[in-house]
Amino acid sequence: MMFWRKDGEELHDGVEPGEILPNPDGSFQMSVDLDLSSVKPEDWRKYECVFQLSDVKNDIVTKLDKTVIRTNWGKTGIRSDGGSSEVHVGVIGAVVGLLVLLAGIAGYVLWKRKKDNNASETTSSSSSSAEAQAAK
Fold it and tell me: Are 11 and 4 in contact, with CB atoms under 8 Å apart?
């Protein structure tokens, strides 16, 4: 069983039970969400998450602490340490790679056009010189 307490009293308002998810090693994950939108940051230390296992004497108690409890406030990926998730790094890498590729293609096209224009100008100028020589 998992629940939230404030000042030692079990909370029911603003608490939403999450899913119980199995892990490949036979253990499981469990979550219980606490709505902190009306809780002042200085009051966070009054809250604790309690996990009780049957046949175990002591509860597992985790105080509400920004460095320990994960939140999704202002984040697109859930990370309590402010770091970026691997998914974000992969997406950013792919976008940067695509931009480099497009810049390379654009550079090649511009170089090729300039080279072709120079070649046609050289051919036109040679033709004009040859025609001028023949007219004399």
Answer: yes
